[in-house]
Write a structure and sequence with these properties.
It is a single chain. Helix content is about 30%, strand content about 25%. It has one helix and four strands. It has a two-stranded parallel sheet with strand order 1-2. It starts with a strand and ends with a strand.
Length: about 60
Amino acid sequence: MPIIRIELLPGRTVEQKREVAEVFTAEICRIARCTPEDVNVVFTDIDKSDWAFAGKLMSDS
């Protein structure tokens, strides 16, 4: 059972997440030779104050 975890900054629409889930599911099924019913996609929105890049909080940029 593949589980795809996607962490994003807030702001993506439900439509965007739906499309990402469809595309990632199709590709993991193609590569791993599994069915869509075997695939789970989990989206986690992370606030800019909880994400640092290059030693700096994204909320500081």
